[in-house]
Amino acid sequence: MPRQRLDDATGQGGWEEIKAGAPWGAQSHPNQTGFAWYRRHIQISTAPGASPDAALLIPAIDDVYELYWNGVRVGGLGTFPPNVDFKSSVPAQTYTLGPIRDGVIAVRVLKLSFSSTDDGTAGGFEDPPRIGSPEAIAMVKDSLDYHWLRLQQFGFGLTWLYVLTSFLSLAAWLRDRSQKLLFWLAAYTFMPLLELVLNGLRLPISGIWLTFLIQTAIELREISQWFLLFYLLQLEDSAKLLRFLRIVAWINLIAGSLDGALSFLISSLPGATFAVLDALLTALILPAETLPIIFVLIALFRRKRLDAARWLVAILAFSTATWYAISNFADQGVRYTHWTLAPRMRAPLFSLFGSSFPGQSILRTLLFASIVYAVLRYAADYRSRQPALEQEYQNARELQQILVPETLPEIPGFRLTSAYKPAQEVGGDFFQIIPLEAEHLGSTIIVLGDVSGKGLKAAMTVSLIVGAVRTLVETTASPAQILAGLNRRLNGRLHGGFATCIALRLDPDGRCTLAAAGHPAPFLNRQELELPGALPLGIIPTTVYQEFARQLQQGDHFALYTDGLLEARNASGDFTASTGSPSFLATTPAPSRPPPKQ
Q: Considering 387, 417, 445, which residue would you say is the last residue of a domain?
């Protein structure tokens, strides 16, 4: 770079002559970083009647610079070490030089370390500076800003369509938060606005912070696209695939944020170290860019019966991800490979009304349109299915009202109370109270339990259990045998689920015999009883259950409950035992009548 001499001589032993219309990396100093000086002696002549002052316009200098006019600093952009910072993609800067007509312009430049995707051609002036009257320079700047604005008009318009879609999707998700597809659509369509604010408005803020935030925003955009495609292709039935996606998402978000955070060390790390760290973090990120391709292949392999709208999304996501992944792979180490594939892929395919359309932008626009169309189809189908779903739930609620007694029978010597409040529209909790006859006349069987899961499936399982209980009670009064019979009947019918249950027999003399199958132990006078451990129903068909007996006395309070009582929360989200309890049953010997004698 220029020698430290302050004369105007060029050639051997003096300043090197270099053009200001292109970076030095594209001329005679590729891959060059560090400090440099530009210097030129100029004479200014003005037209009659023109302003006596002169102004200078600098379109762009990579990365940090300060400007001197006749040895006096008149401006700059960014800050030099030790507190280095730079401004990224800001508009052209203008500086007033005053009425002096003869002088030396000197520019001190700092080119920071290259990243793993830099081709080594950057450094110094990117376009030639211009000098003239303040009015003429202002007109040139306005022309440059207008030209830039015309190039961005399509991107701005598309971004606001994204924002509108994000707002509508978020509103729909807030109405029904079980629709995760709508949440991820809202997240994905919000990302272009975030990227526009950070990278598209040429804000004059710290380039170091911008680099960090932009890299993080890019990873958030990719992650939201993965989840959106995951739910669009109806892959959520695979718990392992969902867990894998979450792990990859966290890895990429952390690696991407760390990659962006390297900008904070750009002036303190040697250039080679900076490039190696950047390449290592990028190597963690790049493989995940193939996730949309993997999801589409999985959906094809599983022969998912998706409508045409979802398959259109899959095809465009596959194409977009392939294009993006290839261009990113080709960009890595381009200073050494000299591949031209990535620049060709980023080049505009055509221009329309002053806006350029590269392949990646076209594919992402088509992908966005297909996603919106697919989600609209999804919302329409969901609304059309709502009446049928509501009818199903209504039938399940009516079924459960039959399976859970609304009125309790009278049991001589005892007073019974119960409470039931489903945690969802249809719960999986149940209890039955069945008076016995024949040799156990006067005794009562009480069965209480909880089926894993919620909804219509749980209600149907409860109906199976209640029917089996009433059949078993006709042949046995033993709580342990009732549970064993239930266990055999439920084995293989719960599809990976299970049911907890407790069965007890209340005899007229106050004797209580009970057995439990993985159910929470009851309370006697606020003291939890100790029961032998046992497996829930429906897991192993040969499970043997043990019985436990307790003599109830006058005034005793005996309580049975399901685990919903322990998990219940109040309106503020705090745990409470007073609201949200799926079921509760209490038996108390009536104090007005002493227990029957044996």
A: 387
